[in-house]
């Protein structure tokens, strides 16, 4: 059933306009003194909440061995086709039989969907909270295995942005 | 005129010009900061202490930009337009008295560049010349959006100049003079001799018309970014664009000063006799004038970030069907009362 919506009939006060104008001015005036929401970026950094999808990392076992088994599930799940893995038989005796010799991610193509993280059977690849990794060149936005492992070291214990002097 | 008098006038011209330019820079800074505050942001705060040098950085940026002259423009008019807008904007300030008179070395120096007896007419004439700059910029750009902006601004001018002129007529009726200094002196004494209290309707009409005259929101149809890309200055770049901006701010400063002069007693401080205090009185009156003008400049910014833009037909309706009859009625009533009193 259709409902009839009555249009708003302006009252006498509305038609005068002046009181409404004053009301509007007072509102913006009040807002002038409210708390500012600006984060002054290079000096203070926004701390992303839990579950933020930023730069990737490759996790390690406590003994320092890489968790990734080069199964290429992540590369298959990746909608942007930006994960490039070169698998090899692992050099160590017991434990996992494969490991990646190369693990490159083209961050310019990555859309940070997090599918790689979800596809991984070994919990080896994860997205971290790091967001400010801009660079001047395309090459600079290819991250390799060493880089990904380094990100793990930077983020394994605490939030990247709450660490003091993270230079 | 003797040599010293000439030199004094030259000094006054330079001082007023410099002060206006400084005020323009202050306005650019204030506009950006206050708009930011209203939106819970901080605004520019990096260049210099509290970002105070931001206008200099802006100016430098404009100077470094490439100055593009599109191929299809009408070159002489295209180059002339920014100057046509900026020069009248700066010239208007010449007749506005910004203080009572100083006495230096036995010479009375009135704090006003030119004390002409048709001050009000001079201002009305010059503000109308200024709009030629906008129309020419729109037309000579040979592009549809600037042209629309220029046309809108001329239509806006015609409808609001009338109401503004008629609002001033009421003041002139009460003063009996077109000299701005006379208008100021007639408002001296106590607070309620200011014309804003004697002529509230004229004040409201004048205030609204002045916003339309200076192309400020809520009447900035000539440069409505969302509809006209950039309005009349779409095709301009570098320093020419900056000149349009400077002209807009200079116009605002003049308009605010004029509002103060006509309705808020100009440099007059209520309950204080400036003339009896000599040079100190002149100085204080100058400060009072600056403070009052600053308030109206703040109001410009405040209004801009509060109200949405008028639609074109609403603008015309307001101008012709509300403000004009109201201004006429106001003159009629003022004239009637004045006749009865005398
Ligand atoms: S986040 Fe998405 S796009 Fe980026 S590497 Fe993982 S799966 Fe590919
Ligand atoms: S990161 Fe995970 S899904 Fe990708 S290859 Fe390594 S183990 Fe497989």
Low-pLDDT windows of residues of chain B: none
- Biggest sheet strand order of chain B reads 1-2
The CATH class of the domain at 56-155 in chain A: Alpha Beta
Order of helices and strands of chain B: HHHEEHHHHHHHHH
Mean pLDDT over the full residue set of chain B: 82
Tell me about this structure.
The complex is a heterodimer of chains A (167) and B (342). With 167 residues, chain A is α+β, with helices and mostly antiparallel strands. Chain A has a domain at 56-155: Alpha-Beta Plaits (2-Layer Sandwich), CATH 3.30.70.3270. Chain A has helices at residues 12-16, 18-31, 73-77, 115-119, 145-155, and strands at residues 56-58, 83-89, 98-106, 125-127, 142-143. In chain A, strands 2-3-5 form a 3-stranded antiparallel beta sheet. A two-stranded antiparallel sheet of chain A has the order 1-4. Chain B is mainly alpha-helical. Chain B has helices spanning 3-38, 54-64, 75-91, 119-140, 144-175, 180-185, 195-198, 200-213, 225-228, 238-263, 278-304, 312-341, and strands spanning 101-104, 107-110. Chain B has a two-stranded antiparallel sheet. The two termini of chain B are 39 Å apart. The interface between A and B is medium-sized, with 16 and 13 residues. One iron/sulfur cluster (SF4) binds next to helix 3 of chain A. One iron/sulfur cluster (SF4) binds at residues 68-74, 85, 119-120, 122, 124-125 of chain A.
């Amino acid at each position: 059933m259709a409902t009839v919506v009555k249009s708003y009939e302006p009252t006498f006060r509305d038609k005068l306009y002046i009181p409404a104008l004053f009301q509007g001015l007072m509102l913006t005036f009040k807002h002038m003194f409210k708390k500012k929401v600006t984060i002054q970026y290079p000096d203070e950094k926004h701390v992303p909440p839990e579950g933020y999808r930023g730069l990737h990392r490759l996790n390690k076992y406590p003994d320092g061995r890489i968790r990734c088994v080069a199964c290429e599930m992540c590369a298959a799940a990746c909608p942007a086709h930006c994960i490039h893995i070169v698998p090899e038989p692992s050099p160590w005796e017991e434990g996992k039989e494969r490991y990646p010799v190369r693990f490159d991610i083209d961050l310019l193509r990555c859309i940070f969907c997090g599918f790689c993280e979800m596809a991984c059977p070994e919990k080896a690849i994860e997205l971290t909270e790091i967001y400010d990794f801009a660079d001047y060149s395309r090459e600079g936005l290819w991250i390799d295995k060493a880089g990904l492992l380094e990100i793990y070291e930077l983020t394994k214990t605490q939030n990247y942005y709450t660490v003091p002097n993270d230079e | 005129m003797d040599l010293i008098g000439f030199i004094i006038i030259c000094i006054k011209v330079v001082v007023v010009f410099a002060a206006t330019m400084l005020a323009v820079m202050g306005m650019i800074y204030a506009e950006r900061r206050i708009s930011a505050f209203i939106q819970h942001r901080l605004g520019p705060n990096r260049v210099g202490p509290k970002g105070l040098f931001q206008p200099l950085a802006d100016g430098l940026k404009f100077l470094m930009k490439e100055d593009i002259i599109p191929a299809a423009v009408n070159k002489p008019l295209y180059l002339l337009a920014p100057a046509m807008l900026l020069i009248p904007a700066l010239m208007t300030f010449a007749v506005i008295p910004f203080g009572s008179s100083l006495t230096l070395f036995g010479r009375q120096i009135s704090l006003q560049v030119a004390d002409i007896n048709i001050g009000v007419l001079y201002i009305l004439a010059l503000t109308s010349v200024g709009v030629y700059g906008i129309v020419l910029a729109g037309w000579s750009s040979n592009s549809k959006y600037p042209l629309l902006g220029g046309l809108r601004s001329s239509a806006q001018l015609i409808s609001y100049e009338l109401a503004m002129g008629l609002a001033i007529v009421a003041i002139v009726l009460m003063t009996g003079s077109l000299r701005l200094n006379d208008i100021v002196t007639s408002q001296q004494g106590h607070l309620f001799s200011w014309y804003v209290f004697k002529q509230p309707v004229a004040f409201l009409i004048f205030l609204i018309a002045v916003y339309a005259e200076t192309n400020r929101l809520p009447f900035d149809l000539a440069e409505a970014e969302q509809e006209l890309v950039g309005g009349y200055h779409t095709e301009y770049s570098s320093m020419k664009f900056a000149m349009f901006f400077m002209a807009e701010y200079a116009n605002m400063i003049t308009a605010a000063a004029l509002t103060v002069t006509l309705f808020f007693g100009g440099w007059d401080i209520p309950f204080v006799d400036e003339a009896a205090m000599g040079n100190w009185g002149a100085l204080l009156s100058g400060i009072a004038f600056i403070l009052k003008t600053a308030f109206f400049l703040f109001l410009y910014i405040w209004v801009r970030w509060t109200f949405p833009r008028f639609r074109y037909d609403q603008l015309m309706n307001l101008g012709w069907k509300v403000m004009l009859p109201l201004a006429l009625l106001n003159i009629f009533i003022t004239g009637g009362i004045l006749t009865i009193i005398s």
